[in-house]
Amino acid sequence: MRLSALTLSAAALTALPGLAFAADPVPSLDLRGFHAPTDPASGIYLEPARSPATFDWNTALWMNYVYRPVVLRDPATNDVAFRVIGHQLTGDLTANIGFAERLALGIDLPFLIYQTGDDPTAASRRVLGETAIPSQALGDLGLAAKFTVVPPTAGELGGFALALHERLTFPTGDDASFLGEGHVTSETRVLAEYRLVALAVHGALGFKVRGERESFACANVPLASDGSDPCETRFGNELPFGLGIAVVPQALGLDDEGRWTWFLETHGYLPLAPVAPFEDARLTEVQLGAAARYAVRDFSVLAGAETALSGGIGNAPLRVMASLGWAPRVHDADGDGIEDDVDQCRELAEDKDGFQDQDGCPEGDNDEDGVVDADDRC
Q: What is the DSSP string of 92-128?
């Protein structure tokens, strides 16, 4: 944003008598640019269209560091003139559970661990108002629901899948922390994926509604004579989107134990109202990120990083995130008493007839004479 331009306009307008002003100096916006996904197989932003099995649950702790996400820039040089937030470290506690093979319900509690910015100046106060950014705070509680409309068409191998995903946030956060909106928001997305063994392509497109439109960096910009808000940086309804790929390197011969998944993603949003799409780049987000997940039985660790492809408010030049997840599961898919990590036939139960019973595969003709064991008298 343009500190000098906003400062000059604000100073000039405050000298005019008889005008009504927008009175809320608090950001009242979640400008963190990150919402932790609740599915245990997710990447940074995108998650699979498949829902967990009935009563399969998981929980995770996310950590998210971001460098200089909200700044004011000099209009002449485009240099950073004021760091509203210089460094920010947040966390998320998430949980998720599946129902009826089609539905998943999740919860996300974000919290602020530490953040810092420049000390307010006379110029910044004219633009931002009186801000007191806390170092620790709670964010807005998020509730998520995913319904798998089209389950994977090729079973375990993948195929096409489609889901509806809803995320509601409630105003439990500190309005001054940049993690709280001060009102309810709703984001509905369509999740689509096509998976074929080692490669999955994911896409998301949705619609986000805010319970109340918010202006940013317009603390002393007066309302127009007709009562409308002339502030250029107004946040309202948005169009969120995402596109990415997930690769399982085991199928490429790079991971014998099948513990890694690699992700490459881009995601963001466009404003829909009151500002039209592509009208103001400051209200647009586009991020590009990469991540890797390493899983050992019920535990998984994900680490990733993102960078901004646009200069919108809240778009950070660097974001680093990590998560530790726990998803307790049954590790014997065919119920033959041999765990999946050593079972050579995970979908077929061992026949337990005293012949090669440790490989997890049924042997229908132990002596290989062409007569199946059920009919073979020898």
A: EEEEEEEETTTEEEEEEEEEEEEEE-PPP-HHHHHHH
